[in-house]
Amino acid sequence: MSAHKYELMFIANPELDERGLTKLTEQYLDIVTKEGGSIDGTDYWGRRKMAYEIAGKNEGNYVVVNYTADPATSAELDRLLNLNESVIRTKILRKDAE
């Protein structure tokens, strides 16, 4: 399988402090690198107000990660993020799809 470029955006619990958010993010980025993928950039947007309430929360910590991995790794990353109670919402976009 060939690798593709992806953009992951997730919204984490607003109660997480900076250290907790970094640890949470790195835990998932390890999945990508262990499977032979690469992290191309991580952008912490910080705590922002959400457009609408999700799971009783009006704010969340936004993180955007650009990475390269095969589709199976990306699917597993999405699955694991959705199992974590600290992650409110996730979205993974394939960047190189033309």
Automatic annotation (TrEMBL):
<dbReference type="InterPro" id="IPR020814">
    <property type="entry name" value="Ribosomal_S6_plastid/chlpt"/>
</dbReference>
<keyword id="KW-0694">RNA-binding</keyword>
<protein>
    <recommendedName>
        <fullName>Small ribosomal subunit protein bS6</fullName>
    </recommendedName>
</protein>
<dbReference type="InterPro" id="IPR014717">
    <property type="entry name" value="Transl_elong_EF1B/ribsomal_bS6"/>
</dbReference>
<dbReference type="GO" id="GO:0005737">
    <property type="term" value="C:cytoplasm"/>
</dbReference>
<dbReference type="InterPro" id="IPR000529">
    <property type="entry name" value="Ribosomal_bS6"/>
</dbReference>
<dbReference type="GO" id="GO:0006412">
    <property type="term" value="P:translation"/>
</dbReference>
<dbReference type="GO" id="GO:1990904">
    <property type="term" value="C:ribonucleoprotein complex"/>
</dbReference>
<keyword id="KW-0689">Ribosomal protein</keyword>
<dbReference type="InterPro" id="IPR035980">
    <property type="entry name" value="Ribosomal_bS6_sf"/>
</dbReference>
<dbReference type="GO" id="GO:0005840">
    <property type="term" value="C:ribosome"/>
</dbReference>
<keyword id="KW-0699">rRNA-binding</keyword>
<dbReference type="GO" id="GO:0003735">
    <property type="term" value="F:structural constituent of ribosome"/>
</dbReference>
<keyword id="KW-0687">Ribonucleoprotein</keyword>
<comment type="function">
    <text>Binds together with bS18 to 16S ribosomal RNA.</text>
</comment>
<comment type="similarity">
    <text>Belongs to the bacterial ribosomal protein bS6 family.</text>
</comment>
<dbReference type="Pfam" id="PF01250">
    <property type="entry name" value="Ribosomal_S6"/>
</dbReference>
<dbReference type="GO" id="GO:0070181">
    <property type="term" value="F:small ribosomal subunit rRNA binding"/>
</dbReference>
